[in-house]
Design goal:
Elements (H helix, E strand, L loop, with lengths): L1 E2 L16 E2 L2 E2 H6 L9 E3 L10 E3 L8 H9 L6 E6 L7 H14 L3 E5 L5 E9 H15 L8 H4 L4 E5 L11 H13 L3 H13 L7 H14 L4 H16 L3 H26 L1 H5 L1
Parallel strand pairs: 1-4, 1-6, 4-5, 7-9
Antiparallel strand pairs: 2-3, 6-8, 7-8
Length: about 280
């Protein structure tokens, strides 16, 4: 469940889930961290997303996180619910897996992340659905409504465990400064190539695990052994051939290896032409 209906006051009312980091909307980046969810519910205004989701809306709109949780949990019968805010640019699948594993291991009502300063992050968490529903119902009965109430009224009622995940997992974009820092980090950190490949796959609607090392080796061989413009054209043709062969990751690898072997033969022939005595000998 992704909560995407906040007012974004510190962003002067901007459409925060739609703001981009690394060329991808913040909401799409969060959705990419949980591709195996049986049901994905986004609580907020409808928008285009990189993959299908179920939409829900708190009543009234902008009623706060407890109202949003209540709206979202009505759309799933799952035993455990991963709850995320829509502004987590660096959340990854390993953090999601760690939260799920902790709930299974302990049998407690839920598990949440703590940030680098040890503060609880209740919107980077997994909750067991029944305690979550009971807690929300009890708060609604006590206060007459969930609107405007803080999340701590819920978390205090639940038996929660905590994990210290990747320090960046709970980094959120509450301000323009946060957004600028996230965009700078995407370009500076060591995974910029992986970020780019993921963004391209999302943009093209491709669900394919690509061995970038194989493709980079191929591009290098084509550039050095044939001609520099051969690199992008060859990788394009490899992609086309892989699609015709079935479009699986192994098809990319097979096509890339064939093209790399050809590039190496081409280079060998060019070397022989430059040194005919060596070829004859």
């Amino acid at each position: 469940m992704v909560l995407a209906g906040g007012a974004a006051k510190r962003l002067r009312g901007a459409d925060k889930p739609g703001l981009s980091v690394g060329g991808r909307a913040l909401l799409d980046r969060v959705l990419s961290a949980c591709p195996d969810a049986a049901t994905t519910v986004v609580v907020g205004g409808r928008r285009a997303t990189a993959r299908p989701v179920t939409w829900a809306r708190e009543e009234p709109a902008g009623g706060g996180p407890l109202a949003a949780l209540d709206a979202g949990v009505r759309h799933t019968a799952a035993g455990s619910v991963l709850v995320l805010s829509a502004d987590l640019p660096f959340l990854g699948a390993p953090t999601v897996a760690a939260l799920l594993a902790e709930v299974r291991r302990t049998g407690r009502d839920g598990a949440l992340c703590t940030d680098a300063d040890g503060r609880d992050q209740p919107l980077v968490a997994v909750y067991r659905a029944e305690p979550l529903r009971r807690g929300l119902a009890a708060i609604a009965a006590e206060h007459g409504s969930l609107t405007g109430l803080p999340l701590r009224r819920l978390t205090r009622r639940l038996d929660l465990t905590r994990i210290s995940a990747d320090p960046l997992a709970s980094f959120d974009c509450d301000t323009w400064e946060d957004l600028a820092a996230a965009r700078a980090r995407i370009r500076d950190h060591g995974g910029v190539l992986d970020e780019w490949i993921t963004a391209v796959k999302d943009e093209l609607g491709i669900e394919l695990d690509v061995d970038t090392g194989v493709l980079l080796d191929l591009a290098r061989d084509a550039a050095h052994g044939v001609a520099r413009p051969a690199a992008p054209l060859t990788t394009f043709l490899v992609g086309y051939a892989a699609a015709k062969a079935g479009g699986e990751g192994k098809d990319v690898v097979d096509a890339a290896r064939k093209a790399a072997a050809l590039a190496n033969r081409w280079a060998a022939e060019a070397g022989a032409a430059d040194n005919p005595k060596n070829d004859a000998g």
